[in-house]
Amino acid sequence: AGLDVAEMPDNKVVCGCMGVTKGTLIEAIHQKGVNTLAQLKECTRASTGCGSCTEHCQQLLKAVVPEFQEESEKVLCKCIPFAEDKLRDIVRSQRLRSVQEVLDIYGNGHGCEICKPALSYMMDMLWCGDHDEDRSARFINDRVHANIQKDGTFSVVPRMRGGVTSAKELRRIADVAEKYNVPMVKVTGSQRIDLLGVQKSDLPRIWADLGMPSGQAYTKGVRMVKTCVGTDFCRFGVQDSTRAGIELERRLEHLYTPHKVKMGAVGCPRNCAEATVKDIGLIGQDGTWQVVVGGAAGKKVRKADLLITVESMEEALQAATLFFQYYRENANYLERTYDFVERVTIEKVRRDTVYAALGVQQGLRERLRKSKRLARDAWLEGDEPRHPTQFVQIEPLEKVYR
Ligand code: SF4
Predict the structure, then answer these.
(1) Pocket of ligand 1 (CB under 6 A)
(2) What one-character-per-residue DSSP string does 203-263 give?
(3) Cα-Cα-Cα-Cα dihedral sign, residues 314, 317, 323, 329
(4) Are 113 and 98 in contact (CB under 8 A)?
(5) Dihedral sign computed on CA atoms, order 184, 189, 193, 198
(6) 342 CA to centre of ligand 1 in angstroms
(7) What is the ipTM of this complex?
(8) Residue 268 Cα, ligand 1 centroid: separation in angstroms?
(9) CATH topology for the 220-381 domain
């Protein structure tokens, strides 16, 4: 989408997450002998954030490196040269329960910022949370359960299931904003409230004062279910989208996923909460629900594919959760549902989920249930930090020695 990489000026930023320009990428290719995507990632860190620039990086490699060949089998990275589906099989069959064990036996023993978060997710998903978690293998956001901002402060987004809140919650949010001098309080596009500019050391007390669960806005996990008011208040509503959205969020919250998962539920095809461009959408119709998957409305815009049409809300929730667990188990790390569905094809997704044999469906449900049983609200860690310095504000050196 957008400008073709060949037309871009050298100072154009290709990877927005890591701030890498086209010129920096070309320099790495010419001066450091880079000729694969994995090497380009390692040298420049491009394509290691949200992954949406991967296509541009590949285009650039194709244009600049004569011997570039698309990797027929995409390996995780140089530290552990296996495709992710192979690694999942290895970890499962060898019953490896820590990132370090996998790196010691099958990798170079130390790993990097590409493979460690991916392996960390793999452990969590495969062992349903029953494993040795290595916090150092995770991104900073996952270590402090908040989203780091450009000035080193953090943002705090409490969970508001289905975008529904109450006067009591709003009062608590207002009290927190005043007590901790929060510089900005912002309503997000996900029907939630973001407290921006928070000091790291204030995080545990803010979570305790809010008394609300984490909205997981900082991690590759379940974000939210955006809902419209549906039959409760809307004249056009034919299904109870608010209840469906709240219930879907409750069933999946606190879980980790290969990339963020945004969902939506609407009470009629007018689609006021944009369910057709969400990773998972529930669309109420007269007498039925459509469950759609793989939608996007970010850098890439994609209309979600129809997974199935069912009669009841419970059937819609069941279909959505089957897809959710299937995505968790089969997508590559940092692969959004829209790329996953395109790669695997919606026909196969349907065959492996909603039209799969009963035993296959039961397996997906059972593993999801186990993960959910062990998943806990990350903000509860504010009471028992994993590490004495987990929430200590680290000042930049120039400030310390000023
Ligand atoms: S999507 Fe339909 S039910 Fe929901 S608010 Fe819009 S018009 Fe009303």
Answers:
(1) 228-230, 234, 236-237, 241, 266-268, 270-272
(2) HHHHHHHHT--B--TTSSBEEEEEE--HHHH-TT--S-HHHHHHHHHHHHTT-B-SS-EEE
(3) negative
(4) no
(5) negative
(6) 29
(7) 0.99
(8) 5
(9) Sulfite Reductase Hemoprotein; domain 1 (3.30.413)
The highest-level CATH class for domain 5-64 is mainly alpha
Ligand 1 centroid to Cα of residue 278, in Å, is: 16
Q: Across the strands, what pairs with 301? A: 297
User: What's the Cα-to-Cα distance from 95 to each of 91, 132, 165, 255, rounded to whole Å?
Assistant: 6, 12, 43, 21
Q: Can you give the length of the chain in residues?
A: 402
Question: What sign has the CA pseudo-torsion 207, 178, 220, 81?
Answer: negative
Which of 268, 276, 292 maximizes ligand 1 atoms within 8 Å of its Cβ, making it the mutation to test the pocket?
A: 268
Kindly report, residue by residue over 152-182, the tens digit of the pLDDT.
Answer: 899 999 999 999 999 999 999 999 999 999 9
Which range (149-158, 264-273, 392-401) has the least confidence? 392-401
The ranges of the chain annotated as CATH 3.90.480.10 are 142-218
CATH homologous superfamily, domain 142-218: Sulfite Reductase Hemoprotein;Domain 2 (3.90.480.10)
